[in-house]
Design goal:
By secondary structure, the protein is α/β, with parallel strands linked by helices. The protein contains twelve helices and 28 strands. An eight-stranded mixed sheet has the order 13-14-15-16-17-18-19-20. β8 and β9 form a beta hairpin. The chain starts with 8 loop residues before the first strand and ends in a 6-residue tail after the last strand.
């Protein structure tokens, strides 16, 4: 936890700022006071020196642990704790039991910064467009979501000046503190758009002081700072949209089998949600991206085809819906599990990984591919390479399907690249499996390099996840490169330091750590 400075900074004759795990603002009237946010609470020892005998109310701008962790120090306080309406899900012990806050094995959690155990005796009465009368002063609440869907700014008149205590809705320089909190899910811009609406709302208010939860107070043209942030939030929201505008889907028309599986190319079948079966003339099968719910479909496909022995199983990336059936395929068919080193890394010890969509159990590879190179299986020769995009731990592999003879790469047939979830047809998830910090989606070293690789490889067909198989078209991937560069710039411009690694990306694989950042902290929680 960052240290708390109990020496106040006087902003106005009756307004003080304490630098704690977040900025805590104290408004004084006579010998009474209210506070916006709480932090560790160590700043309270300085109140008598300010002539304050009683703190009467604490208003929390949002639920994050750095705003309120010190409130757990005792069960009952001599002041009333207020929080925005809707924050019960994140702050109350009962709400936390119903929410999704496990940071392992699921998708993006409902919040990255809940206070473990929550708080009792909180009034969730800060309605987004309401107010509260305190000693003849009207304290107003403005809905400014972003660091959570219910976050509020607190507006107050102090010494003839109007101040907005905006929590983490804004930061100096037109940026956002820890902008990954705007990613309410792994692919849409829902959180960014909500934040833009909130900043648009706040920017329209006459302000003399903008008092954020982190960083310096903004006294010089605060509305101009908010206007800059407004533009940047919209750019970030748009970056969450279509990655290859104007491109058609270019789907391959499959042949439907009796069992429900699809014949994509001669010898290549797609089953269930994500699975593929590549058939060898040797009577063997290679399974790609099997998930447990689809094992029945795989059995039906093998039954319809007859006389195929599955000897190899692999995955394009570590997400559970692409790999959690690998151990079952190995056990049922005696197949070898062969993985790219980047895919094998998080699967080797899922208890020690803090990344989304992990399978419940660790998966050990029987064989590792080269990071880049060639791998042979029966008559098929595969080109192998890393393919980061939707997640860092992703690979791609390409082979010529149908009509080839042993050792003859240039024989008849079509080049099929197994591409997982990094890129999709235009009508599927805006053309990508999504980007977010928690999934460690990368731009220049991820989406750009992966698109450039595909432009060099020039496959005929991309056999991707979630039932998508489509024709490769160069124009699509040139547009993806442009999009990724724009998206990286939009994301970086929201970072206070301008450094994605420092401000945007959460962590890597090691889950056995506590994250600490200047002025804020949060816990990585795991279900036991």
């Amino acid at each position: 936890m960052s240290t708390s400075d109990t020496r106040p900074e006087q902003l106005l004759p009756n307004l003080y700022r304490f630098a704690d795990s977040c900025n805590v603002y104290v408004i004084r009237k006579g010998d009474r006071a209210i506070a916006v946010d709480f932090g560790s609470g160590r700043w309270m020892q300085a109140l008598p020196g300010l002539g304050i005998n009683q703190l009467e109310h604490v208003f929390l701008t949002h639920h994050h642990s750095d705003q309120c962790a010190g409130l757990q120090a005792q069960e009952h306080w001599p002041f009333t704790i207020h929080a925005p309406s809707g924050e019960e899900k994140f702050l109350s012990p009962e709400g936390q039991r119903r929410g999704t806050f496990d940071r392992r094995g699921l998708g993006c959690p409902d919040s990255y910064a809940v206070l473990k155990g929550g708080l009792q005796d909180v009034r969730y009465d800060m309605a987004g467009f309401g107010d509260f009368i305190w000693r003849d002063a009207r304290i107003r609440f403005l809905h400014t979501p972003g660091h959570g869907p219910h976050a509020c700014s607190v507006i107050a008149d102090i010494e003839g000046r109007q101040a907005a205590f905006c929590g983490d809705a804004a930061h100096a320089g037109g940026t956002i503190w820890q902008p990954f909190h705007l990613e309410w899910d792994h692919w849409t811009g829902q959180g960014a758009l909500a934040a833009w609406e909130g900043i648009t709302r706040l920017q329209a208010v006459g302000l003399d002081l903008l008092c954020p939860a982190h960083g310096p107070v903004i006294a010089d043209l605060p509305r101009n700072v908010l206007a800059k942030l407004q533009t940047r939030l919209m750019a970030f929201y748009l970056a969450k949209g279509q990655i290859s505008p104007g491109e058609a889907d270019n789907y391959v028309s499959p042949t439907l089998l009796k069992c429900g599986a699809r014949l994509v190319l001669p010898g290549l079948y797609q089953f269930g949600t994500n699975g593929y079966l590549l058939r060898s003339r040797m009577g063997e099968g290679l399974v790609v991206d099997p998930q447990q719910p689809d094992l029945r479909e795989l059995d039906a496909l093998l039954s319809e085809l007859g006389s195929i022995k599955v000897t190899v199983a692999t995955a394009t990336h570590y997400h559970a819906d692409h790999c959690d059936a690998l151990p079952f395929v190995r056990e049922r068919f005696g197949a070898r599990v062969v993985l790219h080193p980047m895919v094998a890394e998080p699967l080797h010890d899922v208890q020690g990984a803090d990344v989304p969509w992990l399978p419940a159990q660790s998966i050990q590879a029987d064989e590792l591919w080269p990071e880049r190179g060639v791998w042979n299986w029966n008559e098929y020769e595969f080109d192998i390479a890393p393919w980061p995009g939707q997640t860092h731990w992703h690979c791609i592999f390409m082979t010529r399907v149908a009509g080839q003879s042993v050792g003859a790469r240039r024989a008849a047939g079509q080049r099929a690249a197994f591409g997982g979830d990094s890129f999709q047809p235009s009508t599927r998830w805006n053309g990508t499996g999504g980007f977010c910090a928690y999934n460690s989606s990368r731009f220049e070293e991820g989406f750009v390099r992966s698109a450039e690789l595909l432009l060099r490889w020039r496959p005929d067909v991309l056999a991707c996840g979630h039932g998508t198989y489509y024709r490769f078209k160069r124009s699509k991937f040139h547009k993806i490169i442009t999009w990724a560069q724009v998206a990286e710039r939009a994301t970086r411009e929201l970072c206070p330091s301008g450094d994605l690694q420092q401000d945007y990306y959460l962590i890597g694989l090691d889950a056995r750590q506590r994250i600490e950042t200047p002025g804020a902290f949060f816990w990585i929680e795991h279900a036991q």
